[in-house]
Amino acid sequence: MQIIFKSYGDLGRDINKNFEKFSGDWDLVVGIPRSGMVPAYMIALALNVNCTDISSWVNNYPLKKGMTRGLKNELTLPWEAKKVLIVDDSIMSGNSLKSEIEALPAWLSSRASTLAVYSSKPFRKDVDIVLEFVPHPRAFEWNIFHHKVISRSCISLEGMIKKSEEENNKNEINFRYIPSGLIDTIVSCQSKSKRQEVESLLAERGVSYRELVMSDSEDNVMTLENLINFKVGKFTDSSSDLFIEYDSYQARIICQEAKKPVFCIKDNCMYNPGDELGSRFFKNKVKSLMWKVVNVKVRKQGLFM
Questions:
Q1: CB neighbours (10 Å) of residue 263?
Q2: Could you give the C-alpha distances from 230 to 88, 95, 154, in angstroms and in order?
Q3: Residue 287 near residue 120, CB atoms below 8 Å
């Protein structure tokens, strides 16, 4: 299995290369909180128009802008906008976007068009503009720790936490991130004798998990080779689809040995095993090819201009 990963950098590049799809005489860009706000601001900056969230648009809260640049259309209130682009980062079933649109007053929705940066389907009629086709399984940098994939993930405990480097706080433990969902398995090189201490720490920080796997070693010391083998073994034996690791070298080896995807926090990238010749692989390849062919044809015909 492979997981397609999109970073903030990918998001910016995908918006820029598809500029002609949404270029036009827009008065206002409206983002759907939370994940739709980042691409909404990127698109608004590219178009040089105001940006606001959907609640502020509906309630007609005054628009704000910086002092360093003028806007194409100087608006004071969102209701002054006659042509509005509603933006979300991605669309799957389309139910979330549909519910947002249906909740709008008819006179406001009649002014709006919808845009999703990423779609799980290559062709759809429930959104006006799609920038990129990204099939499942997929993960985004801006929500990977708050996505349901966490419930199918092994996570390195040592990758989650970081001890303070300050002289007076050497024993203080800070978390790099705290997933908001139930983690399938947390893997730690700490000795089983410290289980109660680790469980208390996780409970204190609000980390929920199905299983905590700890080392049989009594001295909390493992060679790098043994540490990697320990993580690979637990990942392979588990039903998890993804391993989340901080260290770059370990992430690459775990992926190679376990033959499952590994997300590396330090590199901010997804390591995937070699392409698998399964039905999902072929299906996604065919869909991607169809998407590229259609986009090339449309660009040549000038339909996005």
A1: 26
A2: 40, 42, 12
A3: no
Helix (H, G, I), strand (E, B) or coil at 84: strand
Instruction: Provide the token pair at 242.
Output: 């993804």
If we measure between CA atoms, which residue out of 227, 262, 266 comes closest to residue 241? 262
Record the tokens describing residue 220, joined without a space. 């909390």
| Peptide bond preceding 137 in cis form (omega within 30 of 0) | yes
Cα→Cα distances 270→262, 263, 284, Å: 6, 4, 18
Distance CA 207, CA 198 (A): 11
Q: In DSSP terms, which residues pair with 51 in a beta bridge?
A: 29
Q: How many CB atoms lie within 10 A of CB 206?
A: 10
Query: In the chain, where do the E strands start and end?
Result: 4-6, 28-31, 50-53, 84-91, 112-119, 129-133, 138-140, 153-156, 161-163, 173-175, 183-191, 209-215, 242-245, 262-264, 269-271
Specify the pTM. 0.80
CA 154 – CA 157 distance, rounded (Å): 9
Q: How far apart are CA 116 and CA 90, in angstroms?
A: 5
Q: DSSP letter at 88?
A: E
Average pLDDT for runs of 10 along the chain of length 305: 92 96 95 94 95 96 72 83 96 89 93 96 92 93 92 94 62 85 94 93 94 83 89 95 96 96 94 62 57 55 40
Could you please report the per-residue DSSP string of 151-193?
Answer: GGEEEEHHHHEEE--SGGGTT-EEES---SS-EEEEEEEEEGG
Tokens (6 digits) for 109 = 């929705």
